[in-house]
Amino acid sequence: MKFLDTPVGETRLGLAYGTGVPGFIELNPGLIDYVELPFEQLRHSPELGALQDTIPVVLHCASMSIAGFVSPSAPTVEAIKREAERTRTPWIGEHLAFVSADGLTENTDEPSSPTALTYTVCPQLSDETVERVAENLATLQPRLPVPLILENSPQYFIVPGSTMSMVDFICAVSARCDVGLLLDLTHFLITSLNTGVDPVVEIERLPLERVVEIHVSGLNTQSGVAWDDHATPAPALVFELLERVLQRVRPLALTLEYNWSPTFPHAILQAHVARTRRLLGRG
Amino acid sequence: MNARQVHAVLAAGVENPGLIARWRREPQLLRSYGIEPDTVDLDGLWKFAGLTVKVRHNAIREDLPLTFRLMSVAGLEIEIFAAYAGDRASKGARYASTAEARACDLVDFLEHWLDLERPGHSLLWDMLRHERALAQLTKSAPPSGPGAERVGGPRTAPSSATLPRVRGKIILHEMRSDPRAVGAALRASAPRLPGVLLEPAYFCYWRADAAKEISIVQLDAFGFYILSFVDGARSAADLNRELGGGKKPTRAFLQLLGELGALGILELGRPR
């Protein structure tokens, strides 16, 4: 098995796992340092673990509902711990979001089973949620062998009861918790576009010194809203934001997320890998 | 507003978009959950539910790359998958466990949902059927048997008694565009679709017995309808009558049968 080393001052370059990724790695040996694998896919298809015979793995996760009020089950946390130990991932990236919530019943006296989603949702951006994130981190982090880092959500609509912007929310979580950040630049741009703020100004307000890993992917504007899209190349503005971030911080890893389409063109992927390597000074 | 309740409402709406439709009709229901109706962007939530369902269909992109590309270029992905999410929720239907079954369910939905008077919808319906036909023929195991390697047929002159039979497997689609041309346009970095003409076009997707390649044959309307009636049991005279001809097939009809035989799509056999 191969494991990722992450020396300070260097940025490892990875790809988010998709069915087309092993073929790309085989055709381009040495170009990519690691593959980011979702815990949920590993749990569902343990045979994916064999990928680590070829290339190191960084574990990503969408099951802990860090910004939610329904905690993950003990078996789920135990399974995440096992995968973290097995893969020797340097950290676990988890969404600053929720993926499960209380069930809804019209009769509030009746208990209902929680609603478990397959996709993370941007939480209410409020002091109440910041406190909840802190509580969840305090509970979960000691049960895991490596640090959790938190990934900013894309915001598609204003969440009721929100009292702060996404950047303020991330700043508040960072101030309240000793935690690293996974800065998804495309999520950040999407949020900026959908909430009408200037991403170039807002990015400077983030606690960039906390950034451990960066995500880059595409976006797509449809029905009047900017949406996350891992099947299209990242726009120029995402790379402009990346340049700005790299002027202030040297993350340990950068992951290109082009994993929604098995037929994502290799030529575009190679071009974006080359562009990213140049920005990282690894051209 | 209590964050816990807000999350519960949002999650319930994403999980079951039928609830969002209900909250649109009866916004006061949200108050019973402690949520002020004016604060919930139900339209945004509805579209977000569409995004989550779109992502759940990533596995079917393998067979439908240009269909998804077209949906994206035409700005239809979110609209389509939000409507699909609502449709599945209203039926209480779960998403199928295999990619093939998910693709079939989506095709069934789109067949009724798409408005073919809208050019983007019409192009999409054609592209979807084009890629499905290619995928279905690719996955179908080639039959074996005598003469399986033959591609072109002998130039025998058909007669009234000739018994035409499809050699291999065909899928017929009547379209309003040429998906091959649309596909070429979609491969550009900045596709321009409005220039694609919407004209009737008749396609036969054909995989000959044991052949690896799939042929796409563009036909005229007459050839298309002849092929759609060929069943290996009816003679040329029977087919001619089915298509509104007289007792005796015309020379043009027999000539067309001969051309389809020469292409190799039809085997022109003698009656049993």
- How many β strands of chain A by DSSP? 12
Query: Any idea what the shape of chain A is?
Result: globular
Distance between the termini of chain A: 27 Å
Strand order of the largest sheet of chain B: 2-3-4
Mean pLDDT of chain B: 91
Count every beta strand of chain B, where a strand is a DSSP E run of 2 or more residues: 5
User: What level of helicity do the residues of chain B show?
Assistant: 40-55%
Which class do the helix and strand fractions of chain A yield?
A: alpha/beta
For the largest beta-sheet of chain B, the strand count, sense and barrel status come to:
3 strands, antiparallel
| Largest interface, Cβ cutoff 8 Å | A-B, 42 and 42 residues
Segments of chain A where pLDDT lies below 50 for 5+ residues?
Answer: none
What fraction of the residues of chain A are assigned to beta strands by DSSP? 15-25%
Compile the SSE list and pairings.
The complex is a heterodimer of chains A (283) and B (272).
Chain A: E1 12-16, H1 21-27, E2 34-38, H2 39-44, E3 57-61, H3 74-87, E4 92-95, E5 98-101, E6 115-121, H4 127-140, E7 148-151, H5 166-176, E8 180-184, H6 185-195, H7 199-203, E9 211-216, E10 218-222, E11 225-229, H8 236-248, E12 253-256, H9 266-279
Parallel strand pairs in A: 1-2, 1-12, 2-3, 3-4, 4-7, 7-8, 8-9, 9-12
Antiparallel strand pairs in A: 5-6, 10-11
Helix pairs in contact in A: 4-5
Chain B: H1 3-15, H2 17-25, H3 42-56, H4 65-73, H5 77-91, H6 99-113, H7 119-139, E1 163-166, E2 169-175, H8 179-186, E3 201-207, E4 215-219, H9 221-229, H10 236-242, H11 251-263, E5 266-269
Antiparallel strand pairs in B: 1-5, 2-3, 3-4
Helix pairs in contact in B: 1-2, 1-3, 2-3, 3-5, 4-7
Explained architecture:
The complex is a heterodimer of chains A (283) and B (272). With 283 residues, chain A is α/β, with parallel strands linked by helices. In chain A, 34% of the residues lie in helices and 21% in strands. Chain A contains nine helices and twelve strands. Chain A has helices at 21-27, 39-44, 74-87, 127-140, 166-176, 185-195, 199-203, 236-248, 266-279, and strands at 12-16, 34-38, 57-61, 92-95, 98-101, 115-121, 148-151, 180-184, 211-216, 218-222, 225-229, 253-256. The two termini of chain A are 27 Å apart. In chain B, strand 3 and strand 4 form a beta hairpin. Chain B has 272 residues and is mainly α. In chain B, helix 1 (3-15) packs across helix 2 (17-25), helix 3 packs across helix 5 and helix 4 runs antiparallel to helix 7. In chain B, strands 2-3-4 form a three-stranded antiparallel sheet. A two-stranded antiparallel ribbon of chain B has the order 1-5. Chain B contains eleven helices and five strands, in the order αααααααββαββαααβ. Chains A and B meet through strand 5, strand 6, helix 4, strand 10 and strand 11 of A and helix 1, helix 3, helix 4 and helix 5 of B.
